[in-house]
Structure to design on (632 residues):
């Protein structure tokens, strides 16, 4: 993957993102992927003069994740999207749609957890 | 002053696609705007679980109709990087030609819709009339007007014959001439300026901090265009990003207008540098385990694909960040302080593509 | 005022549009229009159904039927390009709107199993072979059904 990857944890993620903001980076977006059974990997993509930097954080899906929407306002949409797709909670989200950004209020399933994957042929 | 709440959308004459904004209005001045999405959410990212990586090209094309070609280019580039496939030079340059034709017709469509947003309907029809020539080029060379579907992993599956190239060049000249004839109207006309100059101002710092993309960012004076990365065939082409500094609706429309003319030039450059050779490289096996992060420039701005492969023909994760998704927070920052009558113009000035945003 | 020259030019010219149902533009030769199959050339290999991005084609080798749901077809032309005998074609005009849902079912002559002449147990073997394939289909179905429900 192009760009430098820095590992962060739940405790220092907001501080690291703040550092990136002070360095003049632009928040591009987050990407998420499933990590093990109940984990979630989050990549925070940053851009500065076409140079890419990523912060990687691995969390458990049942514990709340610190929100960076207080640092970058633009993070609110993507954090709400992750909330929709993975049923995780963000601490301190500036505008919480409560899993209804894309989904209807009656939806209780978690869209992106692997449950329909076609197994490779042996 | 009492606050009135006015719902804007999901159905509104100016909106081509459904998005809802809750506007808190005092007198005629908007104080706050809260978005609501989800009217056209299709869950396309999830389809990566049941469609193999070749079939996903057609899915990615349908993320957004109007920039279908460039979505497919971005996805193919990601898979090619993951699998280490070398794309033939001719295929790369052909991708540039169709990408730029897509940018042109997307911008012409937007310029028309924008003219319609401030009530200049004959200008709208004029832009759409010009756009038909580009649609004809797409249809004749690829087989479809909008979803051109020419990308495969490793190259393209359509070619341009010498006659077609000559025809494209002559059509491009006509389009450029006809677009230039409208330059004075869209940039300097009194009524157009009265509706766009100083409306929805986004400062350079705000645009950058709120993560704006594409013409919204460049209209505020930040010279950032993913084509500067020189991905694919763009490495062989002279390219300078178009920048305006005033950050209002006029600047955003001028950026798109000038980009339309620039795209015509890029098509000519690409055709002049079109090498002979293969159309597609052979692709064998499945994408290996690994992650890729690719960015391309779409008509609406920077588009980001993140792909995680797991060694099977089904991808582990496909994440698409479309440009409008990045442009909604800046829109929320533009709206407070504007007049209610200017809201349609400001909403349209970011070129909202909602089914792209929600995928 | 700056638009006036364009207005005057347009006034003096013929309309840019056609009276559509009465005048129809000549189709472009490569247009990806209505899909059809030359069933006599088909060898029922099933490549089209495996490659189709919208999974709208079903091929039954034993029955010798080729079924396509034209309402699910996305007109990408992948099946046409990947057909080994080049028996799939696309017309240069699109399909006319319809008032009811149809399925395109074409019945052809399935290829004779090679062992047929050799021994009587050949059809049994063919049946056995067919069974696991069907089981696979069943496995795939609930998965897609789950997905549909979720949406």
């Amino acid at each position: 993957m192009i760009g430098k990857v820095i590992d962060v944890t739940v405790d220092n993620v907001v501080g690291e993102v703040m550092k990136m903001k002070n360095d003049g980076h632009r928040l591009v977006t987050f990407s998420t992927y499933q990590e093990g059974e109940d984990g979630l990997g989050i990549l925070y993509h940053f851009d500065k003069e076409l140079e890419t930097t990523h912060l990687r954080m691995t969390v458990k899906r049942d514990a709340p994740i610190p929100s960076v929407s207080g640092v970058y306002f633009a993070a609110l949409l993507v954090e709400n999207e992750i909330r929709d797709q993975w049923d995780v909670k963000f601490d301190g989200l500036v505008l919480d749609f409560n899993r209804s950004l894309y989904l209807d209020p009656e939806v209780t399933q978690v869209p992106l957890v692997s449950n329909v994957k076609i197994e490779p042929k042996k | 002053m009492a606050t009135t709440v006015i719902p804007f959308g999901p159905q509104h004459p100016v909106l081509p696609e459904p998005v809802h904004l809750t506007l808190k209005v005092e007198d005629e001045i908007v104080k706050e705007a809260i978005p609501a999405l989800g009217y056209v959410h299709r869950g396309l990212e999830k389809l990566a679980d049941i469609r193999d990586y070749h079939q996903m090209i057609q899915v990615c094309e349908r993320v957004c109709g109007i920039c279908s070609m460039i979505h497919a280019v971005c996805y193919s580039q990601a898979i090619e990087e993951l699998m280490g496939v070398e794309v033939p030079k001719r295929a790369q340059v052909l991708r540039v030609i169709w990408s730029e034709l897509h940018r042109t017709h997307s911008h012409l469509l937007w310029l028309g819709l924008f003219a319609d947003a401030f009530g200049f309907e004959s200008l709208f029809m004029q832009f759409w009339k010009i756009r038909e020539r580009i649609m004809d080029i797409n249809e004749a060379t690829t087989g479809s007007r909008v979803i051109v579907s020419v990308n495969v992993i490793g190259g393209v599956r359509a070619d341009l014959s010498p006659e077609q190239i000559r025809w494209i060049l002559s059509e491009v000249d006509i389009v450029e001439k006809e677009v230039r004839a409208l330059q004075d109207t869209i940039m300097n006309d009194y009524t157009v300026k009265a509706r766009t100059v100083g409306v929805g101002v986004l400062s350079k710092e705000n645009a950058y901090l709120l993560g704006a993309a594409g013409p919204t960012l460049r209209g505020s004076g930040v010279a950032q265009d993913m084509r500067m990365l020189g991905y694919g065939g763009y490495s062989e082409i002279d390219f300078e990003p178009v920048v305006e500094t005033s950050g209002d609706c006029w600047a955003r429309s001028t950026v798109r207008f000038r980009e339309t003319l620039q795209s015509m030039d890029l098509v000519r450059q690409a055709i002049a540098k079109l090498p002979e050779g293969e159309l597609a490289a052979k692709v064998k096996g499945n994408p290996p385990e690994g992650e890729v992060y690719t960015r391309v420039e779409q008509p609406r701005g920077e588009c980001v694909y993140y792909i995680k492969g797991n060694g099977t023909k089904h991808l582990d994760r496909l994440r698409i960040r479309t440009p409008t998704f990045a442009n909604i927070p800046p829109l929320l920052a533009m709206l407070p302080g504007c007049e209610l009558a200017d809201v349609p113009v400001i909403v349209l000035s970011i070129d909202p593509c909602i089914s792209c945003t929600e995928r | 005022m700056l638009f006036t020259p364009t207005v005057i030019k347009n006034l003096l010219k013929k309309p840019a549009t056609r009276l559509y149902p009465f005048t129809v533009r000549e189709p472009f030769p490569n247009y990806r229009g209505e899909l059809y199959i030359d069933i006599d050339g088909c060898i029922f290999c099933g490549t089209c159904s495996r490659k189709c991005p919208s999974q709208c084609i079903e091929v039954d080798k034993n029955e010798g039927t080729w079924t396509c749901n034209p309402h699910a077809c996305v007109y990408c032309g992948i099946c046409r390009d990947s057909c080994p005998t080049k028996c799939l074609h696309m017309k240069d005009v699109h399909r006319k709107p319809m008032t009811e849902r149809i399925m395109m079912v074409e019945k052809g002559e399935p290829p004779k199993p090679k062992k047929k002449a050799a021994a009587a147990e050949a059809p049994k073997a063919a049946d056995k072979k067919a069974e696991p394939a069907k089981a696979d289909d069943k496995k795939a179905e609930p998965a897609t059904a789950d997905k549909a429900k979720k949406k």
User: Anything to note?
Assistant: The first helix of chain C runs from residue 4 to 12. Chain C has four helices and five strands.
